[in-house]
Amino acid sequence: MDNKLLGLFIVFAPLSLLSFGGGQAIVADIQYQTVTVHGYLSNAQFADLFAVSRAAPGPSTLIAALIGYQVAGFWGAIVACLGIYVPSSLLVYGIASWWQKHKTSPVKIAVERGLAPVAVGLIFAGALAVVRAALANEPNNIIVALELVTLAICCSIFYFSKIGSYTVVFATGGIFFLIHWLAF
Predict the structure, then answer these.
(1) Using CA atoms in the order 141, 146, 149, 153, what is the torsion angle rounded to 10 degrees?
(2) Are 41 and 70 within 8 A, CB to CB?
(3) Are 40 and 111 contacting, i.e. CB atoms less than 8 angstroms apart?
(4) What is the pLDDT of residue 179?
(5) Higher pLDDT, 39 or 168
(6) In the predicted model, is pLDDT for residue 182 greater than 90?
(7) How far is CA 162 from the centre of its chain?
(8) CB distance 28 to 47 below 8 Å
(9) Which residues contact residue 14 at a Cβ distance below 8 angstroms, ignoring those fewer than 6 apart?
(10) Most-buried pick from 13, 53, 68, 118 (CB within 10 A)?
(11) Across the chain, how many H-helices and E-strands are there?
């Protein structure tokens, strides 16, 4: 097997088993493994692939296929998908019957309560890793500040109002288009 293909599987298979809370929970680890440890991607490439994976419909672990394709083409995408989906699927399949049989077990209840904050923490760590990767090579502090302010405003709009996401996306795009148009 090609070293890159094996490397991709070795990156994604263990992360698959840690993805409770959803694929978003392992984004920080995916970024660390693919950029820092293995050097498959730069921070900018990772941020771009993350943006594409989030813009496209489908699971948040779609980023694995994009990274696999970037690293080793079609077969890299296949191996990365197998690595990210098969181990966790087998684990879930293996424990699902026990989980259903022991609905009131103190162990089950403790695991559910204990893993909830861990999943939330992993999701926030993933968001932080993406922001850091996107800003790693950013030369202009004004642009960085504008991006962070835009993020804060959009998050506030989503949290405190019932304005739909399409309205916010189109409004934000329109504002940035005007800013760009007026600046040049």
Answers:
(1) -170
(2) yes
(3) no
(4) 77
(5) 39
(6) no
(7) 25
(8) no
(9) 87
(10) 68
(11) 7, 0
